[in-house]
Design a protein that fits this description.
By secondary structure, this protein is mainly alpha-helical. It has helices at 3-17, 19-29, 35-66, 71-91, 106-119, 122-131, 139-161, 163-202.
Length: 207
């Protein structure tokens, strides 16, 4: 095992998955839920994210090439999806959990918006493809990459499970403020993701 490569992978995946950045999103979408349901949402979102990223590690190259989709196109599409999600956070009330009287299913919240596009974000999917670009025929290297992002996902899970006391401390008002601020940051990240892909596609200097 090349420890320097694994450490570099860990840092890259930590940045693109951003466990701390997922926390305000988690607080916003699980506001009003009891502790047990909140914990189930956290576990399910991390499990779903794990399988999504595993898929992109082992089949991401095949999927994009078989559909004749470039990495840049995938990155631009991911940036657009992330931007739309960020807008719903900024305006508030964009998700069913913000509407009283509706039954909330943990798996629904876990899949969207937590697993996708927050934890298994477009950047994380893209990183899973790029980090295994030189290991297409090397199964052990792919497994090591899976082990690396599993550590990041475990850290994400620990942070989300510990969100209960923080939510009680912040209250509904504090959670709403954080949600909107993080929405602005996510929108900026989405624009940066899209512009970077367009710049690379056109052969322009890095932004």
């Amino acid at each position: 095992m090349n420890w320097s490569e694994r450490i570099a992978e860990f840092v890259t995946l930590w940045v693109v998955i951003d466990p701390l950045g997922t926390l305000p999103v988690f607080l916003a979408v699980t506001a009003g839920l009891d502790t047990a349901v909140r914990r189930r949402v956290a576990v399910l979102s991390v499990v779903v994210s794990f399988f999504v990223l595993v898929f992109f590690v082992f089949a991401g190259h095949w999927l994009l090439s078989s559909m004749d989709i470039s990495v840049h196109s995938f990155q631009i599409a991911g940036g657009i999806v992330l931007f739309l999600f960020a807008l719903s956070m900024i305006h508030g009330g964009g998700h069913q959990m913000m509407q009283p009287g509706l039954e909330i299913k943990p798996i629904d919240l876990a899949i969207y918006p937590l697993a996708i596009p927050s934890i298994a974000s477009p950047g994380a999917m893209l990183a899973a493809v790029v980090l295994t670009d030189d290991a297409r025929d090397n199964f052990p290297d792919r497994v090591e990459t899976v082990a690396t992002f599993s550590l990041v996902l475990l850290a994400t899970l620990a942070i989300l499970i510990a969100a209960g006391p923080l939510s009680r401390l912040l209250g509904k008002g504090g959670t709403a403020i954080i949600s909107r601020v993080m929405g602005m940051i996510l929108a900026a990240l989405a624009v940066d993701l899209t512009l970077t892909a367009i710049a690379k596609w056109l052969g322009l200097p890095d932004i």
